[in-house]
User: Fold this.
Amino acid sequence: MTALDAIMQALADQIQLTLSGTADPLIENLQVTGILNIDPTPPSIDVYPADPSQESLTFGRANNELSFTVRARVTTVDHEAGQRLLLSMMDPSATTSLTRAVKANKTLTGKVSALSVAGPSGFGVYNDRQGEGSYLGCTWTVRVFP
Assistant:
């Protein structure tokens, strides 16, 4: 596992633990993956490198700020319930806030020295892999520092 893999998985683990890792999960049946998920089962959150994914902070190859996209997707079958769930993940004061979930452990259990969260974006529509349906979603950018 590379350092990038480890950070993406740590982000996914932190989100999973905070939002659905208890006996009484905040979000039922939440699928969280530490890699781009091309075939999600909503509600779903995936983590993958942002664009751009790295920015040099100082000279030297180990001193890069790394950026990751955290994407939440919900079903459009019951679009009203999906929108409400997505709004709850976007709401910084909600217990289901994705920003709060990520910031609950700002070092990702020692994988990074610090992190920051930007976003969320507005609603977006994401097509499914077969091109027959769609998901409603939004994204956050998580910047991590070595």
